[in-house]
């Protein structure tokens, strides 16, 4: 990892992300990537945008492990081929990832020095993420360096995940226009500046009947986006969805009166938009019960034959009239809307757009629901074979999909269970050694290297006292265990990192420290607060004959991990011994502190009373004090 495992785990902890392994078929919240980028930015001090770009690069490396880099390279020899095909790739991927919310991207300008890409999405904050993807794809798959800058941006809020709400309701579309600078000379020479072969210029005029027979669902549109010719089968489908209407209403009508543009999303159905997207797959839906506005006499729209390499559409009106009289009337109830899929091609000679398409049909059941038959489909290509194939394999594919979804659910359950086990393991580990030390050990640090000296900390010992004894040793032992469990559990609830850390319990003694492993300049104050809270918690438990002796002392220590089988975080030094003596020489339900600790607490206003000199083993006579209460202002 480029930033290290420790930084990554800190970011996961900061964002509350419980996933350590990510599954390709699992849905994740949209705000996960921006939240992780924000956390990493706060941890490392580097810009938020840098991490969004970095995540975009990582995603390309991730999907390359699954072979999707080969899919991208198959779109064409040049980087521009890929940019033209992005929407087509997303269109195909939605069958594999059915819940994928893909953006829309189209090239609006192409030249020898690069291209202009327009990005549209309903999610905000991902424009830098896309930038990282484009940079990595260009470098890794096409071996070129790309410079990207934003020309225009609308509704893109950095760090957000959903677009702003429009006044009419719904989300506003995020639109970002990029300028991509790269060496595009070879593409322009081979794809754009190519000249027609002389033999193509000598072709004779082609009647529209031939074109519309080859593509019975085709549409021909003029510069005003009005329909000038329609395939025979498309007219039949229109009539099935528009009972008691004349098919001649189609000719001369605006295409948007009868059809709805489904893909590419986010663009308007205009001449300029369609003309520049000739390499993009379009999906157009036939509207049911539509009514054409401003229909004109179709005989006035198209007249005569065309010149060389042109298409003659003069027969469209005549054919439409024949179809109207030959097709039996059927109701539109229950008919499924037809979705046409294909490419829009511009024919310069007649200054028209031709939509070369076929219905999007998966199986025989959908064919019947649309009121179509196999003979209605294109005679060329694989339309009919695909329907047959879909029928023969539909049940099998459906079963496979169900199995894959079941496996995905099982995998998701297994991952959740693994995460649960990991959390339980982490909690157990953190109960034995501090979190910061555990993270260092995870990164491969030797346990012997965790030893650390601290200039000053405060060490506390608390011993539970019992005045009631019994003749039955087993019963007395059980009572003692229950008493210690209640007392130590109450103490555990009072420990809050980094103010204090529970070191261990030995028999009836509870040991804690403030100022280690997390350095804390207010260690004496926090330990005094903890000691007073411990005393109060024992009183609130109201256990008969049970009290507690507490003592603490401040000074330097050395701390580190000891042991391999059951590693423990242990404290060493004279400060530990002195703190233990403060507890053992104290009295029940009292808090005894050393003179050095008392000096610190007096400055803070804590209530203390002088006990006198106490003989401490190995130290001689020491002045000690009783801690009796908090400062007046905090009571």
| Number of discrete helical segments | 20
Radius of gyration: 39 Å
* Intertermini distance: 50 Å
Total number of domains: 4
Brief account:
This protein is of the alpha+beta class and 635 residues long. The protein has 20 helices and 20 strands. The longest helix is centred in the middle third of the chain and has 50 residues.
Describe this structure in words.
Belongs to the adenylyl cyclase class-4/guanylyl cyclase family. It holds the Pfam family Guanylate_cyc. Its EC number is 4.6.1.2. It is found in: Cytoplasm. It comes from Anopheles christyi. By secondary structure, this protein is of the alpha+beta class. It has 4 domains: 5-192, Alpha-Beta Complex (H-NOX domain); 207-289 and 335-378, Beta-Lactamase, CATH 3.30.450.260; 381-432; 444-631, Alpha-Beta Plaits (2-Layer Sandwich). 40% of the residues lie in helices and 23% in strands. It is built from 20 helices and 20 strands. The protein has helices spanning 5-15, 32-44, 48-64, 68-73, 79-96, 127-142, 185-192, 198-201, 208-214, 232-241, 255-258, 271-275, 316-326, 364-369, 383-432, 435-442, 473-494, 523-541, 574-584, 595-603; strands at 104-111, 114-121, 147-154, 174-181, 206-207, 219-221, 227-230, 259-263, 281-286, 311-312, 339-347, 352-359, 452-466, 501-506, 509-514, 546-562, 568-572, 590-594, 607-616, 620-629. The strands form 4 sheets. Strands 13, 14, 15, 16, 17, 18, 19 and 20 form an 8-stranded mixed beta sheet that branches. Strands 7-6-12-11-9-8 form a 6-stranded antiparallel beta sheet. The protein has a 4-stranded antiparallel beta sheet with strand order 1-2-4-3, covered by helices on one side. A hairpin with a 2-residue loop joins strand 1 (104-111) and strand 2 (114-121). Helix 10 (232-241) packs across helix 13 (316-326). The longest helix has 50 residues, at 383-432. The two termini are 50 Å apart.
